[in-house]
Amino acid sequence: MDPEELMGPVRELRGRGLTPKQIARSLGMPPATVAPLVRAIAAEDQANAPEREITGCWVSAGWSEGLTVAGDHGWPRGGAAASGASGLVSVLVARDEGRGRVSACGYLTDVWCLGVKDILGPRLMDVRALPAFTRQFFSAYQDPPLEAPAELARQLVFGAVEFARGLGFEPAPGFGKAAAHLGPWAPPPGASQPQTLTLLWNGTSWATVPSPHPGSVSHLNSVSTTPGAATTWAVGASNASGVLSPLALKNG
Questions:
Q1: Which one of 4, 31, 215, 234 is most buried, counting C-beta atoms within 10 A?
Q2: What pLDDT does residue 177 have?
C-alpha cells in the first residue's frame, strides 16, 4: 500500500487510541513506515482543531497609567504599576488543553514605545500549577494582577505592537507563535498611527500649527532659538518603513 492508501487505516487506528507501534503491528507494517504518517495526521488534526477555550486572563495592576481608553468597556482598573516601570504592562493568558492541562503565555509589553519586549511560553502545565506560575510571572509588581477579559489582553498586546511598528520597532522574537495564543484581533474604530505635533508660543499661549509628516512617524527632539530672533529651528528624526532619517524644521 502506498502512503495515501495507508492514511485511512492509520487515522482510524489512531482514533482508537493505539500507539504508533501498535498501529504498525496491526497493519503488519514496519514502525518506520507508520511513524511519519502518524506525525502527519497529528499535525493535520492540530491545525484543524477548534481554538482552545481561554480559561484565565490577567493584566498587571496599573496597566492604564498614561493610556487614554476611549469608551466605557468595564475593564478592571486599580493598583499601581511596578516602581520605575512606566509604560510596562504584563499580560498572561491561559488556554485549556484538555486532560487537566493548560497552556500559559505571558507578554511583557511596553505600551508607550517599544511594543512586546519579551515573551514567556506558550508553556504547557498541569492546571494545578497555574496559580503558582501566575504569582511568579507577576512577582515584580507590588499589587496582585487583575483578572481581565481576553479583549483587554488583545488590545494591550496587539495595540502596543501596532504602535511600536509605527515607530520602527518589531516585537520580540517568537511573537508570531505567541500571538496565536491570544486569538484574533482588530484595531478599535478610529485607531491611527502617531502624527507629528507642533506647538507655537505666541507670547501669551500655545497654539497648534501645521507640521510636515514625512515618515510613518516623526520626532522633534529639540528646539533652538535666540531671544529677539525671527528664526526658530527644531531638529529630530523621521521614520519611513523602519528607516530613520534626520529631520530639521525652520520657522521664520
A1: 215
A2: 82
Q: Cα(28)–Cα(114) distance, rounded to whole angstroms? A: 57
Q: Which pLDDT belongs to residue 197?
A: 61
Q: What pTM did the predictor assign? A: 0.61
The SS3 assignment for 25 reads helix
Whole-number Cα distances in Å, 187 to 124, 153, 171:
29, 13, 17
Residue in 94, 127, 88, 106 with CA at minimum distance from that of residue 174: 106
Which amino acid appears at position 97 of this protein? E
Q: Is 128 helix (H, G, I), strand (E, B) or coil?
A: helix
pLDDT, residue 64, reads 86
Structural contact between residues 134 and 58, judged by C-beta atoms closer than 8 angstroms: yes
For residues 229 and 202, the answer to whether their CB atoms sit within 8 Å is: no
Report mean pLDDT in 10-residue bins for the chain, 252 residues.
80 84 88 87 69 90 81 75 74 94 95 92 94 95 92 93 86 89 75 58 73 53 57 61 58 65
The answer to whether the bond into 171 is cis (omega within 30° of 0) is no
Question: What residues are paired with 205 via a beta bridge?
Answer: none
Query: Hey, what amino acid is at 22?
Result: Q
The full set of domain ranges for the chain reads 3-48, 54-182, 198-251
Q: Which residues are CB-neighbours of 65 under 8 A, at least 6 positions away?
A: 80, 81, 86
Identify which of 162, 180, 178, 182 has the alpha carbon closest to the alpha carbon of residue 170: 162
Domain spanning 3-48, CATH architecture: Orthogonal Bundle (1.10)
Q: 220 is written with which cell numbers? A: 522633534
Q: How far apart are CA 36 and CA 16, in angstroms?
A: 18
